[in-house]
C-alpha cells in the first residue's frame, strides 16, 4: 500500500491495529506520520499519542503504552521509530530490547491501539520470527524511493489539488534539477506556488530561478562536456562549481563517482540488465540510471575508463600537491583529449 491508499483507508476512520512503514524516502514517512496523527483529535494527542525511538528507548516502554487503554478517547496511537532489531544489522546500541514481547503483542494486538512501526530501511530480516509475524499482521506502507514516473504523478496531483498547473516543460525542468528526488520536488512546491500565485501557474522560469541544480546534476553536465571534448564548456562548468563554494575534492569525488557509474552501467548493460535491474544492483536512483544509459550508448568502455583513471590521478594530486585545482582539471582535459582522440 502506498501513502495515497493509506490516506483513503484512514479517511474511512477504520484503521488497522498494526502498520509497518518501510522504506528510506523521508518525505513519504513524514506524510504517513501526518496521516496517522490525524487519527487522534488535537485535544487528545498529549495523552493518547506516544512516540518511541528504539535507539534510545527500550521496546518494553512502547509496548506498555500500547496495551494501555485510551485516556478519554476512542483510540491510542503508538509510534515506534528506528526498530533496528528487525533488520540484519549488528547495531552497537546499549539498549536491550525484549523482542519476544513484541512477538507476543503482534499475536494479540490491543483493539483500541494503532501501533505503527516506522522502519527507515530498504528491507527487514525476513528470517527473524518477529519479522515473519509482523508481515502477517501489519498493513505495510511503502516508503521506498519513488520512480521518476511516480514522483512526477504525485507532484502533478499535489499541484492540481492546490489549484495550480505546470507550464509546458516546467515539470521536466523540476525533475532534472532535483534528479527526480521526490523529497526535493515536494520541498520546492511551496515556493514555486508562491512565485506563481497570481497566474496559478508554475513556470519554467520560476523553476530555473528558485530550484538550484543538485551537485550531481551540475556534475552530470560537466561529464557530458568532458566526454564531448568541449574544453571551454567543461572549464566553465568547473569554474561555476568552484564559484558556488563547492570544494575541489568534493567536485572531483562526484566526478569520479559519476564515471564509475557510467562504467558499471556500460558493463552490466552488456550482460543484459534492464534499467530497473541496474538501479537495484547498483543501489542508485532509477533516474540516475536512466541518464547514465542515455550517455553510455555514445561512448566506448575504454573512453569512459580513460576519464575515470585521469580523474583518480587528479584526486591524488589534489591531496598531495599545492597546485591550483582548476589548473589540474585543465591539464586533465588536455591529457584526456590526447589519449582518446
TrEMBL record:
It is an enzyme of class 2 (transferase). GO terms for cellular component: DNA polymerase III complex. It catalyses: DNA(n) + a 2'-deoxyribonucleoside 5'-triphosphate = DNA(n+1) + diphosphate. Pfam families: DNA_pol3_delta, DNA_pol3_delta_C. GO terms for molecular function: DNA binding; DNA-directed DNA polymerase activity. Its EC number is 2.7.7.7. The keyword ATP-binding does not apply. Residues 19-142 form the DNA polymerase III delta N-terminal domain. Keywords: DNA replication, DNA-directed DNA polymerase, Nucleotidyltransferase, Transferase. Residues 216-336 form the DNA polymerase III delta subunit-like C-terminal domain. SUPFAM superfamilies: P-loop containing nucleoside triphosphate hydrolases (SSF52540), post-AAA+ oligomerization domain-like (SSF48019). It comes from the Bacteria. GO terms for biological process: DNA-templated DNA replication. PANTHER family: DNA POLYMERASE III SUBUNIT DELTA. Belongs to the DNA polymerase HolA subunit family. This is DNA polymerase III subunit delta. It comes from Paucilactobacillus wasatchensis.
